[in-house]
Amino acid sequence: LEYDVAEKIAEVNADVVDWKEDEEALLGYKKIKTNTDHVGYKLLTKRPHIFDPNGERDQDDVMHQYKNPEGSKEERLALFRAAFKCSSRSCEVYELEKGKEVEEIVFTLPDIESVYIGKTFSIDLFMENTVNEKRNVQIAVTLISLFYNGVRGHTIKKVSNTVEIGPKSKKQFKIEVKPEDYIGKLVEFSLLKTYILATV
């Protein structure tokens, strides 16, 4: 997994970086140009029930199933999260190395055991700033319905925001989900799954 995950992420979402030698830089090089939308532009497969030997009608672009829209806040947060988890080298490239030294923001996400269909519920993210300086946290939340075998159903709600947390303080990020948000988008067994990406 140490190598497979990084490879798969790079196949659909990576930045192309041009470097210049610089003896004073941390890596021995400094970035002079970054192209963020060159990799992961399209991911094509065969569209079912269509045969077009002379055109492109039988192409099916499924990139949206593997990544958020290019250039969106969610896409950037996902890439930074992957870089943070993959290696110290990738952290240095994206200047995330300081985040490995200390967990400045402690995140707590309480479990939601069950919800009665037709009732409103909330997704709560609790954050605690452990340092003596304020921090800005970029948060992206996606709530989806899920089939019993793990296959994605429908997107129910997507929220992104930036929250400022004062020194040595706590803050709650709350998302309310109403019946009209999810009724009609539930699938077999009515399972829901929440993805939360937070970058400090």
UniProtKB/TrEMBL annotation:
GO terms for molecular function: protein-glutamine gamma-glutamyltransferase activity. It is an enzyme of class 2 (transferase). It holds the Pfam family Transglut_C. Its EC number is 2.3.2.13. InterPro entries: Ig-like_fold, Papain-like_cys_pep_sf, Transglutaminase, Transglutaminase-like_sf, Transglutaminase_C, Transglutaminase_C_sf. Residues 114-191 form the Transglutaminase C-terminal domain. Keywords: Acyltransferase, Transferase. Gene3D superfamilies: Immunoglobulins (2.60.40.10), Transglutaminase-like (3.90.260.10). SUPFAM superfamilies: Cysteine proteinases, Transglutaminase, two C-terminal domains. This is Hemocyte protein-glutamine gamma-glutamyltransferase-like protein. It comes from Triatoma infestans (Assassin bug).
